[in-house]
Task: structure prediction
Amino acid sequence: MLSKNGNILRRDWENLRTDIEGIIKDKRILETDFKAISIHDNWNEIENRIYHTFCELNHPAQRPIWLWEYFKLDTFSIVIEQPYKFLDQLVDNDETVWLFVNGDKDKFWFYEGKIKAIETVIEESRYIDELYVASKKYQWLICINHHDNLIATGQIMPDKLRQLQETQNSR
Result:
């Protein structure tokens, strides 16, 4: 069975995916602000390009779930309480980005949307443990890991995070 936006609906969907769909509905998040990548989008190509752009891969076929342990570009991280609340200070509100989160079975679920809607989904979800926000131009990647580290890699974003830390420290 397919939902109206072309996503496969299954009874055995992970709690994470079901939770996010419920948040979209409950918070009346518009599809223009946040949506799951449909089966017609090539999420596998997106995932592969993210891995090859941002990670040092040690095996041609195996992919790490914790990408942040394999970043190969300039990277900066901070530990901050509720790190998702700082995403809108790093990402332009008008930019459409990818959000991908790992589920119970070491699989990433891909979404695209605006950062304010992404912050809402993160805040409301009971199941998001680790997440990544990526530029659709593959310029930068942000991770919030299960240790509440806010990690930025790629172009521009590590410097933006350094500036954010300086601003937080001066308060």
